[in-house]
Amino acid sequence: MNDMTRLAYCQYLLVSQLNYTLTHFADHCDAFSHDAINRYLQGERITPRLIWDNVSGDLVPTAAGYLLFDDTVLDKHYSHRIELVRRQWSGNAQAVIKGIGVVTCVYVNPETDQFWLIDYRLYDPDGDGHSKLDHAREMLANVVHQKRLPFYAVLMDTWYATKDLMRYIESLQKVYYCPLKANRQVDDSGGDRPYQRVDSLAWNAVELAHGKTIKLKGFPKDHKVRLFRVEVSTHRTDWVVTNDPTQDSTEATQQACGFRWKIEQLHRESKQLTGLERCQCRKARIQRNHIGCALLVWVHLKHLAAQTGRTVYQLKHGLLDDYLVQQLKKPSLKMVLA
User: Fold this and answer.
1) Quick check: is 31 in a domain?
2) What pTM does this model have?
3) DSSP 265-307
4) Domain contains 22
5) What confidence score (pLDDT) does residue 273 get?
6) DSSP assignment, residue 198?
7) In a domain, 13, yes or no
8) Residue 36 — φ and ψ, nearest 5°?
9) How far apart are CA 301 and CA 307, in angstroms?
10) Whether residue 277 sits in one domain with residue 144
């Protein structure tokens, strides 16, 4: 038996199609036993820094870039004793489910329409005492002070549109765009009327096209932001705020917010193509290492996709095409008719 390595485990996640368990890996590999794979994953320490090490050479920075923050829940509804699993809200399931929360940070170059995962954190408040907002703030500080990436604005979901995080972004002299929850209390009267829900505000034609200046409840008296009513679809309206006082276009605001869906693409692709949420091991260390390796695999798939002009789905599913071609040429199971 050879020594198990990070490369070998990532290679397995890259090529496996449906099953991502350690048993399945061992059953299809003569080099490593199940125990060897398990020992490796318990002793390894995959950190978010490895994502940056593997993506920094591909990333194309720009002053017009966007920094995206959001979280996803890795579904572990079958779990009874997996560490790190906790009940939490899943936007994908639109319900509270048992799972492991992952907060991700994505960099977008709008000039090339490319995006890169540059950092992530696991949501483990019992272990490190950090909230999802703490993780977002920590990763933002890392981008500004350590990675030193240029960017124009931070794009966030409603969950992250808190006073503390918004004020922190402002302290970095950066711009943010984020939708507000429908019941967020705001004032568009300059103090003449009481605060009201953002979804109950009246809008005239000029305000619909160019936005309006409002004050968010709980913010300093002279702190104003621009609010835009963005029709996302016939069934959904977003109320988007930005601290950019020069922004006066609802259309431009909608275009900027549209880049936020890149992070949803990351979450969907990584779950479908890398086995991100499929590890069944109980130990937190193994779960952390599996998640880290799965994200490294997604980073590599994006790199290959950019090189070849194919999608990550075409690359992954293309392995099955190769298998079918070979089986038709030289079948392992030969069909016989009477």
Assistant:
1) no
2) 0.94
3) HHHHHHHHHS-TT------HHHHHHHHHHHHHHHHHHHHHHHH
4) no
5) 97
6) G
7) no
8) -65, -40
9) 10
10) yes
Query: For the chain, what's the residue count?
Result: 338
Q: What is the pLDDT of residue 94?
A: 80
- Regarding whether 328 and 305 lie in a shared domain, the answer is yes
**pLDDT at res. 73:** 96
Check whether residue 212 and residue 283 sit in a common domain: no
59 and 118 housed in the same domain:
yes
Looking at the structure, tell me whether residues 146 and 176 fall in a common domain.
no
Nearest to 211 by CA among 235, 166, 243: 243
CA-closest candidate to residue 38, choices 9, 59, 74: 9
For the record, the structure tokens of 21 come out as: 């368990």
Say yes or no: 151 and 57 in one domain: yes
Q: Quick one: pLDDT at residue 1?
A: 54
Q: Do residue 250 and residue 285 come from a single domain?
A: no
Number of Cβ within 10 Å of residue 36's Cβ equals: 18
Domain hosting residue 189, numbered range: 171-259
> Residue-wise over 224-241: b if at least 16 C-beta within 10 A, else e?
bbbbbbbeeeeeeebbbb
Helix axes 34-43, 284-308, angle to 10 degrees: 90
Q: Are 30 and 1 in contact (CB under 8 A)?
A: no
Q: In whole angstroms, give the CA distance from residue 219 to residue 215.
A: 7
Mean pLDDT for back-to-back runs of 10 residues, the chain (338 residues):
87 94 92 92 96 97 97 89 90 85 98 97 96 97 97 95 96 96 95 95 96 96 95 88 95 95 97 95 96 98 96 95 91 92
Pick from 208, 161, 210: which is nearest to 186 by CA? 161
Element (H, E) at 121: strand 114-123
Q: How far apart are CA 22 and CA 25, in angstroms?
A: 5
